[in-house]
Amino acid sequence: MTSLSQPAGTPAVPSPIGPEQDPGASASPGHDGHGSGHGHNAHGAHADHTMTGFVIFLASESLIFLALFVGYAVFKSSSPLWLPAGVEGLEVREPLINTVVLVSSSLVIWLAERALHRQRLGEFRAWWLLTMAMGTYFVVGQAIEWQHLPFGLASGVFGASFYLLTGFHGLHVVTGLALMALFLVRSLRPGLVLPEGKGVIAVSLFWHFVDVIWVVLFVLTYVWQRR
Amino acid sequence: MASSSSSSPSFDPRMIKEPQPLPGSPGSWRRYFSFNTDAKVIGIQYIAVALLFLLVGGLLAMIMRGELITPPADLVDPTVYNGLYTMHGTVMLFLFLFPVLNGFNNLLIPPMIGAPDMAFPRLNALAFWLFPVFGVILMASFLVPGGPSGSGWWAYPPLSTQNPLGHALNGQLLWILAVAVSGVSSIMGAVNFCTTIIRMRAPGMGLFKMPIFCWTALAAQLIQLMGLPVLTAGAVMLLFDLSFGTSFFKPEGGGDPMLYQHFFWFYSHPAVYVMVLPIFGVFSELFPVYARKPLFGYHVVAIASFAITGLSLIVWVHHMFYSGTPQWMRNVFMVTTMLIAVPTGIKVFAWIATLWRGSIRLSTPMLFCLAGLFNFIFAGITGVMLATVPVDIHVGNTYFVVGHFHYVIFNMITFGVFAAIYHWFPKFTGRMYYEGLGKLHFILTFIGSTLNFLPMHWAGLMGMPRRVASYDPEFASANVLASLGAFLLGVATIPFLLNIVSSWVRGPKAPPNPWNAIGLEWLLPSPPAAENFAEDVPTVISGPYGYGLGQPLVEDQERFERRAAGLKP
Amino acid sequence: MTSTGRRQPSASPNLVLVAAGLGLDALASWTMAQQSYHWLPVQASTAAPYVDNLFALETGIGTFILLGCSAVIAWTLLFNRAPKYDLDDGDPIEGNLTLEIIWTIIPLLVVLAIAWHTIGINHTLATLGGKQRLATAAPVATAALPIATGSPPSAADSAELGPIQVIARQWSWEFIYPNGVRSSELHLPVDRQIHFRLISMDVLHGFYIPAFRLKQDLIPGSVIDYRLTPSRQGRYRLRDSMFSGGYFATNQTDVVVESGADFAAWLAAAERAPLRPSFNEANDLWQQRLAKRNRGWATVPPAPPPEVNVSLDPKNTHEA
Question: Which of A99, B537, C48, C297 is found 20 to 30 A from B190 (Cα to Cα)?
Fold first, then answer.
């Protein structure tokens, strides 16, 4: 969006990539990757475009969560019926452990990314696998919690919003794990990941996104329990 | 979506693309039925399928108007009428207008900015092929037990979650699925269009050298990116309420039916701007060409698009003035809604000023633009009336709104769509259309649409609710006029289809720049080659509307003109 | 590029012409604003004149803008047309900052002025056609016991009649008066504030009386307090304005505004009348449909006609 602020009178310097002459746009990763004079013509799905598109997509995706969060907050603060009969509230301890695991996996995936950047494939795979393990731990923990909850999807608006929120987030975690598995397989043929590592950066960004969403979700559903 | 685009950084999908015959050349029709990743093929695919659904939606409308030509419900059962009007609205919005505008985005954006294709060609093709998928899902709802959804295109709960027959597979479910798939497709498109415009402009084309169509496309797609997620959230909750027994919107489980209305209108009011903004772009492209003048106040017109985007996201409650909205909220949203008149007015005045002291040529696209502009001023005025709370409380949910809405959506947006089809027809088919048939189409459409939608305002002011299958006799005269207009609109499509089909098959060959227009797309041959300028992208050196200024648009303009004309450079 | 055949002398209207045009435009707008009152039903509530005046004001302003813009467009079409085979460009005017500022500021001021004026009307209408949503712990349960038999309004408020329970179903209207009278036709005394309690038993409905210029949705799960004052005697139409499914279009009834004495007499007579099923068009149509082997698309069956003391009579004709 920064490129929108380009003033009217900017002299039109012929440059390989028109928009990238904006100072704002040059902050994007991989700026220096063009050899030819008309780089963007030679590559349909250019790596930079991929990141731009992916960031736009994530921004849009985060608004679904925002809408669900707002819906949850509205229900919680205004609904005449909230907790189903016989339900006191949500148990916090196990989910808290889950949260810590998930959030720290963000650090681990960053380490994986850094390893890849330094061309250390083995180290990359190790960190990458650890991230996947932590993500899997989270999903399994979530599934166990669901099994033991005393209310269901149809138990009033509380049950519905709880399962919708955690379920929709869980879907994203599973998607992230699937993407990571894909790139783990790809890393066995280094040519597919190594040159720029853009796909890995995108997956890593997605994983951070999933984590941040979870933190908000956790605060909203587990921490904010009093009405 | 993420994986397919991010997983192949160094992989160019177009490298495996087969050599493409030019559009319109003999024997090339098959690729219009294939998973082709060329934006120009996809654009024509979008427009063709969308026009097909225009006919479907128009047929539904004509049955409705047949029902409404007399006061009692005597042609079809009221429940059938409800299904017809629900499907009419859904088809026209989700299967005609959004896709046809995506078609123009595909056709126009890459050539206008000098890009060879979209940023993500395969994602683009995928987004298109979802369109027939949700089209079929929606049409299939005519065949399920109980018929299609009959709860209106708003699908307000609790009505929409009543599921009278109790079947797991019902028209409402298919409706929600179709809208959801359409949303996925639109998001894919929006990511693609935004990335393309932000990243792939020709050398020298700063944002303020970009054609207004690209500005408005960007502004519109931003709305998609911000609004659609919210609609998706609402639609998912509605789906759960309908099929899985949750109670998000059911009062008996503590839910709130009003929350759905917020979710729905947060997207669906801005959605009107998603449709109207590209047509603002079309007007801004066409008036300069046919008035032979620079667009008046280019910078302001460009920026006004984003003012509209911003404001469009904070007006949705004006659809809920009479549904229990507190007074302060009504006042706030009334003011924000009325403020939209300002950037919109800037554009209208700029177009009029563009005409002023021009050298006007009244060809078919210009006629559609002029009539569309006139209708839009009228619709804007009724829009401001609807924004003021007391008037809205009287005429809201009456035929006044139906009239206003159709003045925007048909008499302005669809007029703009026709103008765009005629204007760019030679460029992308390589053939000229027949001016006489075009003018006949225009005259019939203008008379038909005015007859159809103008009397509706009167019926609404007198208190005729919208969505009724029968009505009190005092509204008969307005409804007879409206029905006659609707049938005339049906007739008007005949010269249009005749023109398009026969021109494409055997119209005269089009030169590269038949309208003597300025713009990168007119420096390409008609029709353009598969990758537009491919490696040899011109460097833009002046603004997009230099009519009468005598400046070349790009460096080496003559070389590009000669190349487009097929001459040796 | 050269301007050999330029129509310069005639292309710009002179000041006199502009002034005359603006004068004509203003006159036409004034006429149109006066005319706009005839496009609306009779004014039968105290809210109606406010709505109509605002509508007339907007019609006037709107006509001024529409005619003004159209006149300029028409002028360009008459005098700035390119002759056949003339390929010249027009005047290369790229913009005019002053003009652009003017047509940003003036519309801004106009809409803000209308908005300011309307906010004032909103507050007036809030007392004329006010509403308030009751927060109830279990709204559906409240709706199920709607008969507030003889609960009188507070002494200070004795001029007000009510609350009259307005109960909407798919597809019928039922009105329950404070003395327990049930009717499917709404009788109201003229020039007296009425207090309604709006309740929906199933889906969203809209309480809309065009002659009153007032409309309020009925929301399942909420009980909505609503007040208005009829100001003209006559028989008007009450229409369901929020789409409610199957036989939505038939969900209409009559509102009879009568003098205080007539109303009291009607209420007394109604109290003596026995309860019987109301006339209900939706049920009639549903029976017809069942007789014709239930053809048509899915709908919930209509609720049984309400048991009322006074039924709507479809033979009556309404004024608006």
Answer: B537
The per-residue pLDDT for A121 is 84
CB burial of residue A196 (10 Å; 0-12, 13-18, 19+)? middle
Q: Token digits for B462?
A: 């007198």
CATH of the domain spanning C131-308, picked from 2.60.40.2660, 2.60.40.420, 2.20.25.100, 3.90.700.10: 2.60.40.420
Inter-chain residue contact B391 with C54, CB threshold 8 Å: yes
Please report the pLDDT score of residue A81 as a whole number. Answer: 83
> What order do you get walking across the sheet with C186-189 strand by strand?
C186-189, C252-258, C234-240, C205-209, C214-218
Identify the CATH number of the domain in which residue A186 sits: 1.20.120.80
DSSP strand pairing (C205-209 vs C182-183): unpaired
Number of independent structural domains in chain A: 2
The whole-angstrom separation of Cα B392 and Cα B398 is 10
Q: Which residues of B touch A177 (CB under 8 A)?
A: none
Question: Element (H or E) spanning C216, and its range?
Answer: strand C214-218
Any chains having at least 3 CB pairs less than 8 A from chain C are A, B
Of A8, A63, A168, the CB nearest to B230: A63
Query: Domains of chain B: which residue ranges?
Result: 39-205
Is C269 a residue whose pLDDT tops 90? yes
Please tell me the distance from the alpha carbon of residue C250 to that of residue B79, in angstroms, as a whole number.
12
CB B398 within 8 A of CB B460: yes
Q: Give contacts of A162 with chain B, Cβ < 8 Å.
A: none
Sign of CA dihedral B113, B116, B120, B121: positive
Q: Which residue of A has its CA nearest to C138?
A: A80
Q: How confident is the model at residue C130 (pLDDT cuts 50, 70, 90)?
A: low
In this prediction, does ipTM exceed 0.95? no
Is residue C51 within 8 A of residue B393, CB to CB? The reply is yes
Residues A27 and A101 in one domain: no
What does the alpha-carbon distance between residue A88 and residue B223 come to, in Å, rounded to a whole number?
41
Q: How far is A40 from chain B (nearest CA, A)?
A: 7
Residue B488 neighbours by CB distance under 10 Å: 18
- Confidence (pLDDT) at A191: 64
| Mean pLDDT score of chain A | 79
Question: Is the backbone peptide bond immediately before A29 cis, with ω within 30 degrees of 0?
Answer: no
* Contact call for residues B107 and B115 (beta carbons, < 8 A): no
pLDDT, one tens digit per residue, over B123-156 is 999 999 999 999 999 999 999 999 999 999 999 9
Record: contact B7-A80, CB cut-off 8 A: no
Mean pLDDT per 10-residue interval, chain B, length 569 residues: 40 48 54 85 95 97 96 93 97 97 97 94 95 96 94 94 92 96 95 95 94 97 95 95 93 90 96 96 97 95 96 95 89 96 96 94 96 97 96 96 97 97 96 96 97 97 96 96 97 96 93 94 92 90 92 92 84
Give B263's contacts in chain A (Cβ within 8 Å).
67, 71
**pLDDT at residue A207 in the model:** 96
Average pLDDT in chain C:
87
| A112 belongs to a structural domain | yes
Does residue B464 sit in helix, strand or coil? Answer: coil
Q: Which segments in chain A show pLDDT lower than 70? A: 1-47, 190-198, 227
Beta strands at C205-209 and C214-218: parallel, antiparallel or unpaired: antiparallel
Cβ pair B194:A40 closer than 8 A: no
Task: Using alpha carbons, list the distances in angstroms from residue B470 to B70, B74, B153, C244.
Answer: 8, 8, 19, 14
pLDDT band at C142 (very low <50, low <70, confident <90, very high): very low
Residue B430: partners with Cβ closer than 8 Å, 6 or more residues away: B22, B23, B24, B25, B509, B510, B526, B527
Contact, C218 vs C188, CB < 8 A? no
Region of C43 on the Ramachandran plot (φ > 0 left; ψ -120 to 50 alpha; else beta): beta
